[in-house]
Amino acid sequence: MMEALLNKNDFIGLDQSTWFFCGAEAPVHRKVMDAVLEYMVSRTRGPWGRERNAEKEWACKTNLAGLFGGRANNIALMSSSSEAISMVAQAVPLAPGDNVVINNLEFPSGVLPWLALKRQGVEVRVARHSNWGMETDDILNLVDDRTRLVMTSHVSYLSGTRIDYVKLYEQLRNTNALMLLDATQSLGVVPVDIRHTDMLVCSSYKWLLSTHGAGVLALNPGRIESLIPTYVGWRSVVGAPGEDRFASYEVHHDARRFELGYPSYPTVYALECATRLLLETGIDKIEQHVLALGGQLMEQLQALGLQVMTPSDPARRAGNVSIAHARAEEIAAKLAEQDVYVMGSDDRVRASIHAFTDSADIRRLTSLLPAVINGGA
User: What would you report as the CA-atom Rg of the chain, rounded to the nearest whole angstrom?
Assistant: First the structure.
């Protein structure tokens, strides 16, 4: 019997539901809700509130840097990970005949910005999964001297497969290709290291336990000096507005060059609180917890005769466990009627395990599944 690392009573609604939904969005932690209220109170203080916003923004970036070993000044806060990926896609120097490599375990936000580049004569190469797994060689075999960027998720939203991005980056450092890592399905639940990618993106409202409204873009200085966004805003540039602003501008030399204007400060307050909570709990402890519970869940799913898509090897998975099923949406809807929340789409049911999950949650899900799948619930 494994107890939760984070107290369920600290989350709103977990006394009435079983939450396997973090791959989509997190439940609301009471401290995170209080943090959003703190922002509202700061607004009442005029200029002092602005100072508090700046302090929270820096603290938030510092916490994020602590999660993946980076530096706060190399982090930009944007509206979403989709925006971050799109801005990177427009910033990478590309010419007709160049190519970008992605894979078919990617979420649409990691696919569409590259497809849009086809209009510029850029080729998009897609590595194909084998039995829902993705080996680094499957990606590297598509890389040549015209490859300018490789993008991969650390953990697949679809199958829960954890891709060995460290091994991938070791090989890509010897090429002309930059690497963009999407850590949306991993940051906050398993270790992530910015030193093994050129760029990292992540959403705020899933495993990071925050709210909608922010996308994280982290840069690893070294190979990205020439990466200049095609979009520019007042926060992107050096210096206060003056007369010369009508003639020229200079973008910041750090990640601020990707920030066009103010971030969503309610989200910043929430994200600062949530990331502090995760750091205090310890990512290594959270990883051990979710891998152990994931192992329990996979054993029980296999005992039910279900097709598990997620690798059994703990080194090849994180918090997501997926089963293949043609009636995935129907199964998820029936479970939701009994206040058990999973994701059902893309012909798979996905259960996401976080620090607040315990063995009782696993038992509840697996006890309901047979009747739900067989149409008895």
Answer: 21
pLDDT at 1: 81
Confidence band (pLDDT; 50, 70, 90) for 70? very high
Block residue for tokens 């070791």:
170
**pLDDT tens by residue, 76-120:** 999 999 999 999 999 999 999 999 999 999 999 999 999 999 999
Model pLDDT, residue 298: 98
Q: How far apart are CA 366 and CA 297, in angstroms?
A: 8
CA dihedral 322, 325, 330, 334 (to 10 degrees): -60
Instruction: In whole angstroms, give the CA distance from residue 191 to residue 183.
Output: 10
- The three-class DSSP label of residue 373 is helix
Query: What is the domain-level CATH number for residue 325?
Result: 3.90.1150.10
Question: Tell me, what's the pLDDT at 376?
Answer: 52
Phi, psi of 343 (to 5 degrees): -100, 130
On whether both 251 and 339 belong to a single domain, the answer is no
Residue type, 179: M
Give the 3-state secondary structure of residue 235: helix
pTM, two decimal places: 0.96
- The answer to whether residues 182 and 84 touch, using CB atoms and an 8 Å cutoff, is no
115 part of a folded domain: yes
Domain that holds residue 263: 32-279
Alpha helix locations (H) across the chain? Answer: 30-43, 47-68, 81-91, 112-115, 136-140, 165-172, 265-281, 283-303, 328-337, 359-373
Phi, psi dihedrals of residue 161, rounded to the nearest 5°: -65, 130
Q: What confidence tens digit (pLDDT) does each residue in 316-359 have?
A: 999 999 999 999 999 999 999 999 999 999 999 999 999 999 99
**99 in the same domain as 63:** yes
Q: What is the pairing mode between strands 123-127 and 99-103?
A: parallel
